[in-house]
Specification:
Length: 167
């Protein structure tokens, strides 16, 4: 698996995930958006990227299987986000791989000093991924509903010096 820049050829895959109700409910995407709305949304993301929000496609073989976000305006510190789609691909270890590639890109390519991330406590897979990356839990974020339950964000962080020994 590897990360690369998003391209317009990826739009069809991401639009199809927007039609996957289970994926949307877990990822916090609006459910039942039309294909036209989704396509317009992704075209803007790809053609007019924001300088404080880098999104990279995660590719396995010749298929897009996820994406990574490295977001934030600080020069040395960004927030990691990650998804795997569609939901039929979950539970095979891809999420952990995508997130690890995101950390590697942030430290090795962007030269960041710190990467933080947050996962909803009820999103067990995401919490496990962050802990398995060697990130340290640093505190509690806002309350956030997840799949109809009341939950809250758990914040994690890792610095360059903690990352390097594991690479
Ligand atoms: C979170 C997400 C990326 C996980 O992807 P995935 O490919 O299923 O992840 P993995 O297969 O690598 O599993 C990660 C860990 O969670 C565990 N896990 C998976 N589903 C689980 C569940 N429902 N309950 C408890 N643990 C679960 C796995 O066993 C694995 O733990 P292990 O490595 O200790 O065995 C995926 O579900 C997703 O894209 N969700 C929507 C977006 C999202 O929530 N992103 C994270 C917030 S930024």
């Amino acid at each position: 698996m590897f990360l690369r820049s998003l391209g317009l050829a990826d739009v069809a895959a991401y639009v199809s995930w927007g039609r996957d109700r289970r994926f949307c409910e877990h990822a916090g995407w609006t459910v039942d958006r039309s294909a036209a709305e989704l396509e317009a949304h992704w075209r803007v993301l790809i053609e007019q990227p924001k300088s404080d929000h880098l999104r990279l496609a995660a590719v396995a073989g010749d298929e897009v299987v996820g994406y990574v976000d490295l977001a934030g305006a600080e020069p040395d510190r960004r927030e990691l986000g990650y998804v795997v789609g569609p939901s039929e691909r979950w539970g095979r270890g891809l999420g952990g791989m995508v997130a690890r590639l995101g950390l590697a890109y942030g430290f090795d390519v962007l030269g960041l000093q710190e990467i933080w991330a947050e996962a909803v406590d009820a999103n067990r897979a995401s919490v496990r991924i962050l802990a398995a990356l060697g990130m340290t839990e640093i505190g509690r974020g806002d309350d956030e509903p997840f799949l109809g339950t009341v939950s809250y964000y758990r914040r994690f962080s890792i610095g360059r010096t903690a990352w390097e020994p594991s690479t």
